[in-house]
Write a structure and sequence with these properties.
Blueprint (H helix, E strand, L loop, with lengths): L2 H17 L9 E7 L2 E4 L15 E4 L4 E3 L8 H10 L5 E5 L2 H9 L8 H6 L3 E4 L7 H12 L4 E4 L3 E6 L2 H18 L9 H6 L5 E2 L3 H6 L3 E2 L6 H4 L5 E4 L3 E4 L4 H23 L8 H20 L1
Parallel strand pairs: 6-7
Antiparallel strand pairs: 1-2, 1-5, 2-3, 3-4, 5-8, 7-8, 9-10, 11-12
Helix pairs in contact: 2-5, 3-6, 3-10
Bound molecules: zinc ion.
């Protein structure tokens, strides 16, 4: 397939992921192999709605350099691992999808799937934790690919899926979410996870990287005048009512809403399995700092 067509497919896939709620904001990334040593990838920090085919970075795996007017996504190393391990793989998608993210925290022992589905996923494994964009994360994901799994849950972060082409990769992403949703036992769906969690009347601790980045170590419980508390916190938990959020703009607020709901889905899931986890405070502090620095720079520039 020609480079022009692949560029179009990547942009389309990004928009589809956004539409289906499998990523929010600029999180997640999509790539396609153009030859043995190169792949095209979505740029770092550019929203999917603004990404044009010509904005994609062309990454050289051999020399670790790129061509294009935008820097490639910081998870390019994870994509490179997929291409290096599987000669037949030509399309890679990294998502922050809700239910797979919950299972990235709990592990996959409770997943209910048939052997046929497992085969459709191309094998599934969980990579041990590494901070986003680091060599530790790349190494952890690489060992899952090296073991033969084409669908990998990145611990406390999201999923990365490799396929022969766009359709196979996208089908795996969707099937993974379907399997995780069916295996989930946290709340019954008659209300949002945020409302269900708020009834517990306890703070919601960060278990996923994107919440750590955008919100910080926890969403505190605020009973009196929660609106006023939003001048101090990006999100507050109001018992019995849910989670109130306030971003700097509409876009920001929408992303916070999605993150809060996913955090609640994950927390309820882990509680139902008796699993207690939270991200180490130092990792949370680092991610929160890096995110804010990057974000404020972008807003200024
Ligand atoms: Zn990610």
């Amino acid at each position: 397939m020609g480079e022009t067509e692949l560029r179009k497919q990547i942009v389309e896939t990004g928009l589809l992921l956004l539409e289906e709620g499998l990523v929010a904001r600029t999180w997640g990334n999509v790539s396609a192999r153009t030859d043995e040593t190169h792949f095209l990838i979505t740029p770092s920090g550019l929203s999917y709605t603004r990404t044009r085919p010509e904005d994609l970075a062309l990454y050289d795996m051999k020399n670790e350099t790129y061509e294009g007017s935008y820097k490639p996504s910081s998870e390019k190393g994870v994509h490179a691992c997929a291409y290096a391990n599987f000669p037949e793989v030509s399309f890679v998608i990294h998502t922050h999808q809700n239910y797979a993210s919950a299972f990235s925290v709990s592990g996959i022992a409770e997943l209910m799937m048939t052997d046929e589905e497992k085969e459709k996923l191309g094998g599934i494994a969980v990579a041990s934790y590494g901070l986003p964009g680091t060599g530790t994360l790349k190494k952890a994901v690489n060992s899952c690919f090296a073991g033969g799994a084409h669908t990998v849950l990145m611990s406390c972060h999201g999923a990365v899926v490799a396929g022969r082409d766009k359709d196979e990769a996208m089908e795996r992403v969707q099937l993974l979410e379907e399997i995780c949703k069916r295996s989930y036992n946290g709340h019954d769906g008659s209300e949002t996870a945020a409302v269900a969690y708020s009834r517990l009347d306890i703070p919601l601790k960060a278990q996923l990287d994107d919440m750590a980045q955008m919100i910080g170590k926890e969403i505190p419980v605020v009973k009196d005048n929660p609106e006023a508390a939003l001048s101090k916190y990006p999100a507050v938990l109001v018992p019995g009512k849910g989670i109130l959020v306030k971003g700097r703009d509409d876009d920001d607020t929408k992303a916070l809403e999605l993150l809060a709901e996913k955090a609640a889905i994950t927390a309820l899931h882990c509680r139902s399995l008796g699993i207690k986890t939270k991200l180490p405070w130092l990792d949370v502090a680092i991610m929160n700092y890096v995110y804010r620095k990057k974000y404020s720079k972008k807003k200024e520039g």
